Amino acid sequence: MPENLKNKGEIQLVVFMVGEEEFGVEINQVREIVKLVSITRMPKAPVFIEGVVNLRGQIITVIDLAKRLDLPSKGRTETSRIMVVEVGGNTVGMIVDSVSEVLRLTPDAIEATPALIESEVHEQYLRGVGKIDDRLLILLDLNEVLTNEELHHATKQADVFKNSAVEE
Hints:
Elements: E1 11-18, E2 21-26, E3 30-35, E4 49-55, E5 58-64, H1 65-69, E6 81-87, E7 90-96, E8 98-105, E9 110-111, H2 115-120, E10 126-132, E11 135-140, H3 142-145, H4 148-167
Parallel strand pairs: 2-11, 5-7
Antiparallel strand pairs: 1-2, 1-8, 3-6, 4-5, 6-7, 9-10, 10-11
């Protein structure tokens, strides 16, 4: 079992798809899951930042998780969702291809990340692999998906957008 999950009991995960890969993140990092809405593009943003959305009065930055993880996406469909997550004290939206379920994993069902998976998704983003029957679930560490610099850029972009909208 990975060090970062050793002292935890059973964990609850939100399970989602990006391309052909099935991922899980701890439910306490997920604020909500919303249907894809219109995204306002931001100038000079990194390629994986899609833009910002107004979610019930809160301006949040949205990233394309497939682009961030360098994985092929299925493209935007009816099942595409924005997972609103808390990362490093910031609220960020992450576009995923679909969200399927919430499930519980016991510590003995979680293993360190095999080298095979590390080549597909950067190792720093991973917390381990969950085994559920014949499925393998890649456990993402959302705190590693965006660097502090990228988070700062993302929140700064959202603030700029919010301030310009207020002035209009």
